[in-house]
Amino acid sequence: MAAKLVLILTLLIPFFTNASTIEELTVRAEQKDASAQYQLAKLLNTEQATQEQQDTAFYWYQQAAENGHREAKFALANILLKGQITNQNVTQALYWLTGLAVSGDVQAQIALGTVYESMSYTPKPLDMAEVWYHVAAQHDAKGEDAYGRILERKFNERKAKQVSSLDQLDIAFDEPTQTHTSTTPPLETGNTNSSYLTVILILLLVVASFVLFKRAQSKKKLSHVQNQQKQTETIEQQKGIIKQQKRQLETLFRQLKKLQSQPPKQPATDQRVALACAMFGFKQNQIPDAKQIKLRFKKLSKIYHPDLGGSDDDMKRLNSALKIILTHVNK
């Protein structure tokens, strides 16, 4: 009996140890500890992980990489190249490898060469410009402006292609009508009897009806495909927004619990400042000057902006947090 009890306890120890580790790492990760963020991502990214766990692991890989963790940058580049636990994005993978290579990392330089050597196509100039502007944006305001301009240009080009494809479809639909109209022989009233005119009119009506019917069917199919695409895009966007908001709510909830557990009770104004600082990644007792606050606001705007995967509500909360922090600093 004792042997069985020891065996059961031995099997349960790793489970409780792992749960405790995840909880501890999560607390440190939320405090911007890059090493904890990377370790937490590795712990969550297993073969048995659920989709939600994989999404969370990818989020912490990103946070650790953005906080300068070298191994996290390598791991994130590898995930983006292979399309593991997220969609493949070669441009973003090249960005992380290029940043390491520029800093003198020999392993990243070799990895970058290997990627280019194995490519079956030549990278687009606009994609390469995006990579280098993205690297420069981490160190210079001009780089930030250039990076934003490139993202806007690529967005406009995608929209222009969609409009162009619709125009080509309209032209294709118009061609059958023009062809049938041009092949109709001119009628000479002097040499045509009434029966011949009747036959010609009937044929024209049949052809016109057929063309109109085909055009209506084609437009109906096109409209159906477009509606399906819009619905799919809307669903994906909503899923992304829900996941993002869920993480934010969890973080805010933990911050709120910490604030509530602190005696004495803080005024409502201090709680608002604490929540705003948490959204910006600052500690309430170590808020930087207004210039650094605005630079952090620019970086966060690229994450929460509706055109870049965020939402209007995210931007409103970010703007509100900026006003609260600046008001607190300028007192």
Low-confidence stretches: 4-17, 179-189
Helix content: over 70%
Question: What class do helices, strands and sheet pairing give?
Answer: mainly alpha
Count of individual beta strands: 0
The outline comes out as elongated
Main sheet makeup: none
Percent of sequence in beta strands: under 5%
Alpha carbon gyration radius: 30 Å
Protein name: J domain-containing protein
InterPro entries: J_dom_sf, Mitotic_Regulator, Sel1-like, TPR-like_helical_dom_sf
Coiled coil: 235-262
Signal peptide: 1-19
Question: Can you walk through the features of this model?
Answer:
It is a single chain. With 331 residues, this protein is mostly helical. The chain has a domain of 139 residues. It is 80% helix and 0% strand. The chain has twelve helices and no strands. It is elongated. The termini are far apart. InterPro entries: J_dom_sf, Mitotic_Regulator, Sel1-like, TPR-like_helical_dom_sf. Keywords: Chaperone, Coiled coil, Membrane, Signal, Transmembrane, Transmembrane helix.
Notable traits:
80% helix, mainly alpha, 331 residues, 0% strand
Strand-helix topology:
Elements (H helix, E strand, L loop, with lengths): L1 H29 L3 H11 L6 H16 L3 H13 L7 H13 L3 H13 L6 H13 L3 H42 L11 H68 L6 H13 L9 H15 L7 H18 L2
Summarize the structure.
By secondary structure, the protein is mainly alpha-helical.
